Amino acid sequence: MDPVHIIGAGLAGSEAAWQIARAGVPVVLHEMRPQVETFAHKTGDCAEMVCSNSFRSDDDEMNAVGQLHWEMRAAGGLIMSMADRHRLPAGGALAVDRDAFSAAVTEALRAEPLVKIVPGEIRDLPDSGNWIVATGPLTSDALAGSIRGLTGTEALAFFDAIAPIVHAETIDMSVAWEQSRYDKGETEAEQRAYINCPMTKPEYEAFIDALLAADKTEFREGETAGYFDGCLPIEVMAERGRETLRHGPMKPVGLTNAHNPTEKAYAVVQLRRDNALGTLYNIVGFQTKMKYGAQTEVFRMIPGLQNASFARLGGIHRNSFLNSPTLLDDRMRLRARPNLRFAGQVTGVEGYVESAAMGLLAGRMAAAEAKGADLAPPSGNTAMGALIHHITGGAEAKTFQPMNVNFGLFPPLDEMRGGRKGRKDRYPAYTNRAKDDFRAWLAAQ
């Protein structure tokens, strides 16, 4: 049996390789790192996480992301398995020790007899064979040029911004305190998973002034500042209104200052644990394109971070993605060359979990094709089905933008049409229906 080839060993490519091998089909996983570096990656490991260390909500009853987690676990997903093994306390979220996680994914793939990992850059799209392109937001210039040449269209682009990471020992805990919003979590560790830095109104106003005045990274010629709304740099949010941050990542709700319980903070900056040792914390929602010198100056204005030492400062990079509604069919194949499937963030999904989920689907579809079968996507009632439907036809091609999974992508519930049911009733109905349909999809294979 001829192998399936995958370009890119990120989260999507790694998950695709795992699914293909588990189906009994040989797979060759091509990865250009570390021979060809990117500015964001630090290792040559598979599934390296370059931005946040969070897979977001793990609630599979009330949250669409949590439902996607459930589906990936049900399908024997490698990414979720390793995330569960290396999870960190994070309230209701699934956060992981990023280095241990990617090392474990790499080890699992190397130990799989049907997976062969081949280093080196693939610069051109192959004419024949069964291939999955899972090169992510940092597709190399050469391969991006090949994609543009084949599709006859300019790749769309937005910018992902990377949040800074702080050394925990440099956070002033006489000012900051540990607490998850609304004390969410079943264990004490989860209820204390975040470090909170409070601001008074004058401190917040001074912070906004400094943020707006700070030196920012300039765009290169030919780049456009089309940001994805789910990953806006904080200074862009601040430009939309002085109160925007206070109602976004700096909202003070659900938190009580352990040092002064009777005084309500005007705004709160949260930090989330970034490794198992608890020595690193990332500043939640603080993606930025400020220059490095400006970052240290502005972020040290945050109470509790006045003496902060940064393990990594924020950054910004171009994120290329296909206009998938016009280019891909519902088997994730490129219409112009059906031997090529695309998976992951390059397809126009946003987020680690969404990217890995598209890798899971592409892997299973490619494995089925290698065995002479055809695998249809799961029902649009499922989280995976809702995502693939959105990117391969459900979205408006003229205004297509990257999308996180959310209940807005799910078909309406017949029993709730015309009613005024709230989230408490509606969301479990969505996830229960999704679980039933996903179980049926798995059972039919």
Automatic annotation (TrEMBL):
Localization per record: Cytoplasm
Gene3D superfamilies: FAD/NAD(P)-binding domain
Listed InterPro entries: FAD/NAD-bd_sf (IPR036188), MnmG-rel (IPR002218), MnmG-rel_CS (IPR020595), MnmG_N (IPR040131), TrmFO (IPR004417)
GO CC terms, sorted: cytosol
Pfam families documented for this protein: GIDA (PF01134)
MnmG N-terminal domain: residues covered: 4-373
GO terms, molecular function: flavin adenine dinucleotide binding; tRNA (uracil(54)-C5)-methyltransferase activity, 5,10-methylenetetrahydrofolate-dependent
Membrane-spanning intervals of the chain: none
Example of a GO biological process term: tRNA wobble uridine modification
Catalytic activity reported: uridine(54) in tRNA + (6R)-5,10-methylene-5,6,7,8-tetrahydrofolate + NADPH + H(+) = 5-methyluridine(54) in tRNA + (6S)-5,6,7,8-tetrahydrofolate + NADP(+); uridine(54) in tRNA + (6R)-5,10-methylene-5,6,7,8-tetrahydrofolate + NADH + H(+) = 5-methyluridine(54) in tRNA + (6S)-5,6,7,8-tetrahydrofolate + NAD(+)
Claim: NADP is one of the keywords in the record: yes
Residues that coordinate or bind FAD: G8, A9, G10, L11, A12, G13
Listed NCBIfam families: gid_trmFO, PRK05335.1
Name used for this protein in its record: Methylenetetrahydrofolate--tRNA-(uracil-5-)-methyltransferase TrmFO
Organism taxonomic ancestry: Bacteria, Pseudomonadati, Pseudomonadota, Alphaproteobacteria, Rhodobacterales
Gene: trmFO
